[in-house]
């Protein structure tokens, strides 16, 4: 049977939003120069410059692992290290790609409440050792919104920027859910990136309604030197670039990206509110964007799966992650909550 019902396993499960599909169809006219020399790629890059209020350098790659890995590789020599949260996607879910593409730059991990690095945690790693035997810390990698569905507030970003300045560290931002963070914070994209010290942002289109595609945005153009070669060598230079660039026009035009993210965040809040009212369940983290993390009895998890619900429980025993997207519906949330209640007999 074809799987058509919206699920809560990942925001990657949803299809393309209509605006993206329209943009893709418009780009499918006749022939166009390859490898990014087309009008859609230029327009999309300019749209980012307008959005971020800066003359940034923009590259389009296929997925988030490549975006993060190539961005980090650009910032590091092989003997450098990257400070990341212990649950960061770059550490847990990229199969060592950041280390691979940087020829061995080591990830140094820090704990932190709600998936967030702290200035103290960062300083502890930097000052732990300063001898030649320790890989020299060079970059802080922040995930905004975090893997645990929370967001760094502007003052937290600024505090991290201070510690970055103190120790001459660059800042990379994994923006797999950057759109959701912008909506949650109600701040401008510029304010929560380069105005807060971010050097490179990997901005995901995939989770916001595209079929695939991430924009790697360099706020300091000098860092982008030779990045095009990195993309090509890594197999990330799309020959028909217009088809990963044009969908961005669909998202950025008339703030569709914000509409999609707002919808996903509101769905998560609606789901979290209902789950919080069930005594046998426990929300694990504040629901600040589009993910709800909840502990429930193993038997409930088992029976939900038996009923055909798909979700991940990789975050620890008893805890599951429920993700909402631009395509989530209130009806599916109500169905899920009704099934949970029925299993619990309430
Ligand atoms: C925090 C985070 N970063 C990056 C990614 C991108 O991963 P992918 O390489 O699957 O596009 C994801 C996808 O799940 C993610 O959750």
From TrEMBL:
Query: Does the keyword Coiled coil feature in the UniProt annotation?
Result: no
Descriptive protein name: L-threonine aldolase
Q: Which UniProt keywords apply?
A: Lyase, Pyridoxal phosphate
**The EC number(s) this enzyme carries:** 4.1.2.48
* Required co-factors: pyridoxal 5'-phosphate
Q: Which InterPro entries match?
A: ArAA_b-elim_lyase/Thr_aldolase, Low_specificity_L-TA_bact, PyrdxlP-dep_Trfase, PyrdxlP-dep_Trfase_major, PyrdxlP-dep_Trfase_small
Enzyme class, top EC level, equals lyase
**What reaction is this protein's catalytic activity?**
L-threonine = acetaldehyde + glycine; L-allo-threonine = acetaldehyde + glycine
Name the source organism: Spirulina subsalsa FACHB-351
UniProt cross-references to PANTHER family, sorted A to Z: L-THREONINE ALDOLASE-RELATED, LOW SPECIFICITY L-THREONINE ALDOLASE
């Amino acid at each position: 049977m074809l799987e058509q019902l919206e699920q809560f396993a990942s925001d990657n499960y949803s299809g393309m939003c209509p605006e993206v599909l329209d943009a893709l169809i418009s780009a499918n006219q006749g022939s166009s120069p390859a490898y990014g020399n087309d009008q859609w790629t230029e327009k999309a890059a300019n749209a980012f410059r307008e959005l971020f209020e800066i003359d940034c350098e923009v590259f389009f790659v296929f997925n988030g692992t490549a975006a993060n890995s190539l961005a980090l590789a650009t910032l590091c020599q092989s003997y450098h290290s990257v400070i990341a949260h212990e649950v960061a996607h770059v550490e847990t879910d990229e199969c060592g790609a950041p280390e691979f593409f940087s020829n061995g730059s080591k990830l140094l991990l820090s704990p932190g409440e709600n998936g967030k690095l702290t200035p103290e945690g960062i300083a502890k790693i930097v000052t732990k050792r300063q001898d030649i035997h320790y890989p020299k810390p060079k970059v802080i990698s922040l995930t905004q919104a975090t893997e645990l569905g929370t967001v760094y507030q502007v003052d937290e970003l600024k505090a991290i920027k201070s510690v970055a300045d103190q120790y001459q560290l660059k800042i990379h931002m994994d923006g797999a859910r950057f759109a959701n963070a912008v909506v949650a914070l109600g701040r401008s994209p510029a304010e929560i990136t380069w105005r807060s010290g971010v050097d490179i942002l990997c901005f995901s289109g995939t989770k916001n309604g595209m079929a695939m595609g991430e924009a790697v945005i360099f706020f300091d153009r000098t860092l982008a030197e030779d990045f095009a070669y990195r993309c090509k060598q890594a197999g990330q230079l799309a020959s028909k670039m217009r088809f990963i660039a044009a969908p961005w026009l669909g998202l950025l035009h008339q703030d569709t990206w914000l509409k999609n993210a707002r919808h996903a965040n509101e769905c998560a809040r609606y789901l979290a509110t209902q789950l919080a009212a069930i005594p046998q369940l426990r929300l694990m983290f504040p629901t600040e964007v589009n993910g709800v993390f909840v502990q429930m009895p193993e038997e409930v998890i088992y029976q939900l799966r038996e009923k055909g619900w798909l979700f991940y429980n990789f975050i620890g025993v008893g805890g599951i992650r429920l993700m909402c997207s631009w395509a989530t519906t209130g009806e599916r949330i109500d169905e899920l909550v009704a099934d949970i209640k029925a299993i619990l007999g309430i």
